[in-house]
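Minutes, project check-in
Item: structure for the 265-residue chain
Input as provided by the requester:
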Amino acid sequence: MDLLNLKVLLITALIFVPIERLFALRPSQKIFRKAFFNDLIYALFNGIPITIGLAATITLATITLGRLVPSSTSAAISSQPIWLQVLEITLIADIAFYFAHRVFHAVPFLWRFHAVHHSIEELDWLAGHRIHPVDQVLTKSASFVPVFLLGFTEESIALFAFIFHAHALLLHANVRLNIGPLKWLIASPQFHHWHHANERAAYDKNFASQLSFIDVLFGTMHLPGKAVPARYGVDDPIPPTYVEQLAYPLMPRGKTNEAPAPRDA
């Protein structure tokens, strides 16, 4: 944990806590809800291993695959306006994220890592931080490696990363937000809350991180009117604390009540 990370977290709380109070999806949900302090540990300490892992994968990919991209292509991409680069990054990164996310749902071993994130039973802005570092490193690598290899500028990637993070917090937030017809284009809190729903009709749906139309294209969209999930979480026996959750994916089956499996579509 560093002071900068703590300051960012405090600023984020000052923004999202009032928003969740004013536009609450579930008004009775407490600020210090169940597992709040466990998720706070994720927010404070997860950044270090994720940053190291992501830097390592990007560096390795650049060294091994960087020469496959012609310099003329990188030059053309980097010469574009920043706003256009950000739009292109968003599309490329989210398509890659979509497929990486589906793999984490489909492969039993990877699901054990991803199930930690799905173990959230009360969603809010802080809950979005509960992601196993292995899960986060691999899915973020899927999103960021292509844009680094293609030669997008550091400024455009940094701006995308900021938007990506802010949007992720909003998607998990305890807010009721009606974006009208845009819900078929852009991921909304309702869209992502259904991804976390512990309801069979919603299993393996809404994989996109920012662009919901990707799920529309691949037939995995689940957005039933204005309805919201009755409950969140998984049936897998996920332990309750940060350290136990980090160890959970690698624990022998005999150490848990049952072996988790990917959700059926």
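Outcome recorded: Confidence is low (pLDDT under 50) at residues 255-261.
No further action items on this chain.
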